[in-house]
């Protein structure tokens, strides 16, 4: 059920959220890009009365919110359409800040009244039943959290520039973020591969002529350049260690995982036509990194801005706004292999891409392997899970791969709830600060993928099991988790899209005995 705080009452395609206030009343706000909900309130102080008795919220489900006091038949709040919220019932009264009205049949609180005789509750119930019927099968012990995740993906679907887009969260993140969309597509491919492909199309349709895929597609345009810097860099901007001034505008994107996501969709639902459609844009994106994001010309791409890494406030940026952590060129190497896979399906030459993949991995080993780890310039001292991302390539020499796995499973990173985004022993480790210690599902997911690609299936299965247990027992689907407590970390957003998507994808796998078949029992989110 919904708690109306971390899990508001909302609807697929709607920008409206119904939430509980601290005083027990309800309030409604509209989700907008980069705007706090308190700034977009459309109705506050909502209470429902039967005579002099206030009717409390009895329960909130995806399709309705029920008010009842055990005496009356109660009142129900529901969406008549994505832009309209109504109260249904008789003999009651609704009061809100600045207004009051009788509830006698159907009272429209926000938006337009439904047509006379419309079956608002029946239509809402059918919408959600149809959605939950398409949820991937998961083991019984993971079902409750999986249902929450599947609901999260539905309510995070809104229209951005006229196209259905899966946003990270209605709590501020109201836009189509670049790598978020790849993770979202991984879950959508199981039930709606066409919608998964649409997330990729939206990004590629906004690709710049030079090949850059923008960081965000939002209501007002795209974010592809910025002068902004996250907290860690603002205090150190004058140092510019490892590079020159950031300048008036710096291009921003996200880690190159587009072809990786495209291929995952294709594996689940083959569509050579889609591969042909995206092939050239993917090539242009790959070329952008080496032509426009390798300022020292050494053949290894760099992040020119913290936002492009996705790890906005990681201590890898504490020495300046440019860095080359090991993940970036690992992703690019795998992209070459995925371009080869796509080329093979299309009957094109795949050999050139395989050669480029191996050459890039060889260059990483030659220039960044110090005998015990892949180093990051300019901040070589901090230890993060990015050290292990070269496993993602599946092309490392055996002894290097073994050394990385040993490091990952050491006490520095391996615990009941791995993997912290800064090593446990590091003085900069903070279990609640964004990218400075908490566990992020996308990092764990990519490591699981890399471990399997490098042949370490048992370690991958163990990391998967610990990750699923953390999310199952942690109380919600957060942006990131405290690795010491397993609960929500710091200021992490709730109802986070890629956490929902990746949890579902991991939960529906069947590599071990924890997976039992899903039975036909009705789920707790619609009853």
Net shape? elongated
Computed CA radius of gyration, to the nearest angstrom? 24 Å
Strand % is: 15-25%
Q: DSSP helix count?
A: 14
**What's the story with the biggest beta sheet?**
9 strands, antiparallel
Taking pLDDT < 50 over at least 5 consecutive residues as the criterion, the unreliable ranges are 232-245, 512-522
Cα distance, first to last residue?
Answer: 9 Å
SSE series? EEEEEEEEEHHEEEHHEEEHEHHHHHHHHH
3D structure, described in words:
With 527 residues, this protein is of the alpha+beta class. It contains 14 helices and 16 strands. The strands form 4 sheets. Strands 1, 2, 3, 4, 5, 6, 7, 8 and 9 form a 9-stranded antiparallel beta sheet that branches. Helix 3 packs antiparallel against helix 4 and helix 12 packs antiparallel against helix 13. The protein is elongated.
